Amino acid sequence: MNLLLFRVGSRVLTLPADLIRQVRSLDTLSPLPGSGGALLGLTVVAGRAVPVLNLRQLVGMPAAEVPARLLLVSLQEQLFCLPVDDVLGFAEDEPPPGSDLLSPESVIGLPSAGQRGQHLSSDALLAALNRRLTPA
Fold first, then answer.
1. Which residues pair with 20 in a beta bridge?
2. Phi, psi of 49 (to 5 degrees)
3. C-alpha distance from residue 129 to each of 1, 37, 50, 111 (Å)
4. What is the pLDDT of residues 51-95, one digit of tens each?
5. CB 87 within 8 A of CB 97
6. How far apart are CA 54 and CA 70, in angstroms?
7. Non-local CB neighbours of 113 within 8 Å, separated by 6+ positions
8. How far apart are CA 101 and CA 118, in angstroms?
9. pLDDT at residue 45 in the model
10. What is the pLDDT of residue 82?
11. Phi/psi at 47 (nearest 5 deg)?
């Protein structure tokens, strides 16, 4: 599977590359009151309001300034953005099975040229997004 490698703080994370629609700049961010911190707010993409997930909070990292770069992710016909510090490139690898948001850290790609990192579960990300956007 072709994976996109990106950095959030000091962590290297991956998602399947076919889920990524764009790497874009964060132009505006409209905060959402009562989101519990898992959503940073909304941004506009092609005239559509798109939620920006607080990836740092979801993966248990300390809060930091929101990076100016976003990954626009499309998953099961839902769009959302993930703020990232850097996009590192692509690797061929198979994410391990499991329902946890993050896999254990491992070498991604070929061991000789691989990067240590963790796979993000797209299903767990979607579940987290749906929990935050479903009215109580």
1. 73
2. -75, 125
3. 24, 12, 11, 33
4. 999 999 888 898 888 888 999 999 988 899 999 999 999 999 888
5. no
6. 11
7. none
8. 10
9. 93
10. 95
11. 80, 5
Rounded to whole angstroms, how far apart are CA atoms 94 and 49?
Answer: 32
User: What would the two tokens of residue 22 be?
Assistant: 């764009």
Which residue type occupies 3? L
- Could you give the C-alpha distances from 94 to 2, 59, 72, 109, in angstroms and in order? 8, 20, 22, 9
Query: Is the whole-model pTM more than 0.85?
Result: yes
Residue entry with tokens 């607080």 = 54
**Structure tokens of 126?**
């979607």
pLDDT bin (cut points 50, 70, 90) of residue 33 is: confident
pLDDT at residue 6 above 90? yes
Structure-token pair, residue 33: 């009151």
Residues 6+ apart with CB under 8 A from 4: 14, 15, 16, 17, 20, 71, 87, 89, 90
